[in-house]
Design brief:
Blueprint (H helix, E strand, L loop, with lengths): L2 E4 L4 H11 L11 H4 L8 H11 E9 L6 E4 L17 H35 L9 H14 L2 H4 L16 H9 L3 E3 L9 E4 L2 E4 L6 E3 L9 H9 L5 H26 L6 H14 L5 H19 L6 H5 L2 H13 L18 H11 L7 H7 L10 H4 L1 H4 L2 H11 L3 H13 L4 H11 L17
Antiparallel strand pairs: 1-2, 2-3, 4-7, 5-6
Bound molecules: zinc ion.
Length: 456
Amino acid sequence: MIEFEVFSDDPEVVELVEKYWSTDNNGKYLHNVADLLPFREITTTPKLLTFISGESRAWNPDNFCPICGDNISVRSRTDPAIKKLRRLSPCNHCQELQARDRARNLAVEQEALAEAMRKASDSARMLEIEYGQLPDDIALIVLALERAICPKLVEGVFETADLRSLINGPVSPLIERLINANVISDDPAFSQSGAYWLEDGELWFNMAKARYFLVPDRTYGASEDALTYLDNRPWDKNDELRSLWLDYATAECITYFLNQCGRYSLNPESKDVDNITSQIRVALDQYSIQELWCATWIVVKDAASLCKREFYNVTKATATMPGKLQRLLETVRKKQRLPLKAWTRPQQQPAGTLGELFYERYGLNESTPGAEAMRIFASPAPPAYDPFLESEIVQKGLIDVLVERIHHYKLGAQSLSIFAAGIREGLSIEDAIARLLCGLPSLQQGINNGGNLSDC
Ligand SMILES: [Zn+2]
């Protein structure tokens, strides 16, 4: 039953409102709306409803505002709130208050975000680092980055979308490495809208929407000179470069693998891609990128043909790929099948600027056998100075005479024992050999004339 109150004292208006809302005991309206027309100058239903709601207020007593408890007004017989509502929502007045609160909170939040972004931008622009201290892998990525987006790297800001020519595959792992090494930083002042947000008072950002800049070197700033300085610093951390090469080569293989999956509409789960990624990374110790392209091609093709077999479906067939790759690499390793072929580089998969640098500086590319790449980046790098090779006795060729005499007198074991004991005690190469010559005088012949090693 609808209840109502009429604001007007005009009896005709009171009667009109009563006729509009009154029902029998079954809730059926007593008067058709059409029968209420015309009312004075009003000849249409919409105009009549506007007139009635201006002169009165009606409500279903079962429906009330959950906030202020007031009844929810209804405007016409077709209003949903005529019936008992299953879910009560706030009245118009309370909704307006809520909207005002929301707008106020939003303005406060936006101001707090803008302030946090200003502060973050200011402190990012204060950053400076020492390019001479940058790890080798980071330095190589920076040089590849310069090649990919020159001259934006030293002159402005860039975003991840600019980096497609850096590497084949996702660039975000490389960007994360550069951020963690403090060599690039995001600058909120240049970001796309929606890139930053606050969570528990902390500023977060979306990597794809943020914009980055090269953090300047303390001496050379962010300039071509700084990058030349970076290029000319010593490159001797082979383990860092080897790890970057493996990351790069793995990305090359996984990009190829995923492209092949796409061709056959296979959509491997991320755990299977992770498994294949780690198998590839290990296999790169032994095989070239081209051979692993061949291996993944075989695996994808096998899985694709499995889809068509009875008792298989795409999901089941796709899930067999990690196991297939493992078995394939094992049979190749055990020479139970022909070696992997070297697949040519697909046209749509260029090496990227990082790949170009690996080739120009280290001669590495997709055809380099894994073992060769590992040899190039052997760690630790051979020392530039070898005290034994640099010693006087080796330089003057006397060591050959000494070895000959040791051989002639069959004093190998004794000689080595005396020499090793001297080295263990901390003697220099020369002093250890001098002691050897003193201990075994028969070796002195031919040595005495050549040097001053036998002064015992
Ligand atoms: Zn209310």
